[in-house]
Amino acid sequence: MPLPVRLRGATSGGMTSVRDRIGLLTDLFLGAAFADGKFPQEERRYVRDLIRDLLSVPALPPGVDELIERFDPASFNLQATAVEFMRDPPMSRRRVLELVAYVTLADGEQNLEEDAFLRALGEAFGLQPDDYSDLRRDKIHLRNSFIDLARVPLPA
Question: What's the predicted TM-score (pTM) here?
Answer without folding.
Answer: 0.83
